[in-house]
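seq as requested:
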Amino acid sequence: MVRRVRLGWCLVLWLLLPALGQSDELMVSEVVRASLAEVVHLDGLIEAVQQSTVSAQTTGTVMELPFDVDDSVTAGDLIVRLEDSEQQSRLRQAEAGLAEARSGLQDARQQYTRIESIHERGLVSRQEFDQARNTLSAANARVARAEATVAEAQKQLDYTRIMAPYGGILTERHVELGESVTPGQPLLSGLSLEQLRVVVDLPQQYAGLARSERQATVTLADGRVLATGELTFYPYANPDTHTFRVRLRLNDPNGSLFPGMLVKVGVPVASRDALWVPESALIQRSELRAVFVLDAQDQPRLRQVRVGSRDDDRLEILAGLSAGERVVANPSVLVGSERLNLPRRSMAEGESLP
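struct tokens:
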């Protein structure tokens, strides 16, 4: 029986330790107890911060569409031009009305100045003076109204030339050349790829800690972790799904991300104590997980363990180790080493792995 156990151990060691050759020295790490943040992974959706549909603000016929779907535009580019003869005519009429009002104002001002000087010498009645002053006020009001009419006519003319509000990509065209449009009718839709964010729906049972911690990670399919900025919680839950909408700003979209793509969002939802060892200390073959533990005489002993989560370069130990024990962080150096001393006494007594 003892012989079979010893042979079994030799076979395990042969399977566990790859023949990598010897290294310089043994690296020892202590089993430490530290907090572990439990993370729930959810599907998040990338969306553009700036995305909008440009609509007509005046009537007219579409005369020019310089850009089409998937074209890039910069802020201020002309994207739609409407026929503007009606707006030009209204502007000329408004400008003529303004000129007439200003002429009337000049005449009223001259009349008021003459009557004012005569009134001071007592040669005209108070009624005539008041009438001249009221006429001047009315003339000023007509000029102000005419200036407002000109400004409105100029604005309507400007509305015939629709400019891109920001740089981005056109995603949809709602009109064609020669089509008549009215105020409020959609013309073009677009978005900017320079500012992106991720939205994710968080189940309500996780909302408490997530709201207080305000931490989350965004991971792509290839494993890259994206840098995130401001995290925003919606102040209400969806009554149908009982989830809270969470929004994360992406600091560096890097040009390879597009609205509508799916990403993985990791949100910390709980915290607990855990035992940690370096990930390099683990020896793994098939279903077997083990580490080398140094005893009081600094002799390495192979011990089976049960592992949990990975966090960067450390590994959680669920069973098999205690805090303060020492493990070999580079077990490959034990291959062929004189320090590798099998626990023959324990084996002979039939002691099994924990």
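The chain has five helices and 22 strands.
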